[in-house]
């Protein structure tokens, strides 16, 4: 009998929308495994891009890493990264995209991380144009969208922007 593979959920969204907060909550309360790609950037990149102030990731290396970690055991794996929606739907069972329509709040979060003015603007633009959501749709993922309106509230919204459910996190 073949061993059932672990389910994989990708948590994506612009930097600062609350991905890590959500994934840490899920890890703590449901004992799901967390894969924070930040810890592997040097291993899964083609190098650091000084102009863009980030690592250029090699998606083939990222997918190999996800598959390797997924196969370590059968408990659910949650990927915490703003690029996780780029992974193949063949290895991602569900793609959750977090959004934050409060751009002032998002801007403050990015500034607290010491992002350059250029990087803050780039990420705000990505949020305004819903780049992560659009790319997840283009990649053919099964998608859930959550709007991070308050610190501990997530709103499950459908693609047309209507709120379906509200979730309060006890973080």
Euclidean distance between termini CA atoms:
40 Å
The topology string of helices and strands comes to: EHEHEEHEEHHHEEE
Give the DSSP E fraction (strand runs of 2 or more residues): 25-35%
Detail the poorly predicted runs: 157-163, 166-171
Computed Rg: 16 Å
Largest sheet: 7 strands, mixed
Structural class: alpha/beta
Secondary structure: helix percent: 25-40%
Describe this structure in words.
The chain is of the alpha/beta class and 171 residues long. The radius of gyration is 16 Å and the shape is globular. 34% of the residues lie in helices and 27% in strands. The chain is built from six helices and nine strands.
Concise account of the structure shown:
34% of the residues lie in helices and 27% in strands. It has 171 residues and is an alpha/beta fold.
Describe the SSE topology:
Elements: E1 8-12, H1 19-30, E2 33-36, H2 41-44, E3 45-49, E4 54-57, H3 59-70, E5 77-80, E6 94-99, H4 103-112, H5 117-128, H6 131-138, E7 143-150, E8 153-157, E9 163-168
Parallel strand pairs: 1-5, 1-6, 2-5, 6-7
Antiparallel strand pairs: 3-4, 7-8, 8-9
Key phrases:
171 residues; alpha/beta; two-stranded antiparallel sheet; globular
């Amino acid at each position: 009998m073949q061993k059932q593979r672990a389910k994989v959920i990708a948590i994506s969204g612009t930097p600062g929308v609350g991905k890590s907060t959500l994934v840490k909550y899920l890890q703590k309360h449901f004992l799901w495994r967390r894969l924070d790609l930040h810890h592997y950037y040097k291993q899964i990149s083609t190098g650091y891009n000084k102009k863009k102030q980030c690592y250029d990731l090699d998606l083939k290396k990222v997918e190999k890493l996800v598959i390797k970690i997924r196969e370590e055991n059968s408990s659910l794996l949650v990927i915490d990264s703003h690029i996780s929606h780029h992974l193949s739907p063949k290895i991602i069972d569900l793609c959750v995209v977090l959004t934050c329509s409060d751009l002032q709040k998002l801007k403050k979060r990015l500034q607290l991380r010491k992002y350059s003015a250029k990087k803050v603007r780039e990420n705000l633009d990505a949020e305004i144009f819903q780049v992560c959501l659009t790319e997840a749709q283009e990649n053919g993922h099964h998608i859930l969208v959550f709007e991070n309106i308050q610190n501990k509230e997530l709103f499950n919204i459908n693609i047309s922007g209507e709120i379906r459910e509200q979730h309060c996190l006890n973080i």
